[in-house]
Amino acid sequence: MSNWPYPHIVAHRGGGKLAPENTLA
């Protein structure tokens, strides 16, 4: 899940719809 160009912090900050990893998690 660390293959994304943006850090996990950005994904958790409000990228649930933009970050597939958040949906899987």
UniProtKB/TrEMBL annotation:
Residues 1-25 are annotated as: Disordered. It comes from the Bacteria. InterPro entries: GP_PDE_dom (IPR030395), PLC-like_Pdiesterase_TIM-brl (IPR017946). It is an enzyme of class 3 (hydrolase). Its EC number is 3.1.4.46. The keyword Aminoacyl-tRNA synthetase does not apply. Residues 7-25 form the GP-PDE domain. SUPFAM superfamilies: PLC-like phosphodiesterases. The keyword Acetylation does not apply. Gene3D superfamilies: Phosphatidylinositol (PI) phosphodiesterase. One of its GO terms (molecular function) is glycerophosphodiester phosphodiesterase activity. Keywords: Hydrolase. GO terms for biological process: lipid metabolic process. This is Glycerophosphodiester phosphodiesterase. It comes from Salmonella enterica. The gene is ugpQ.
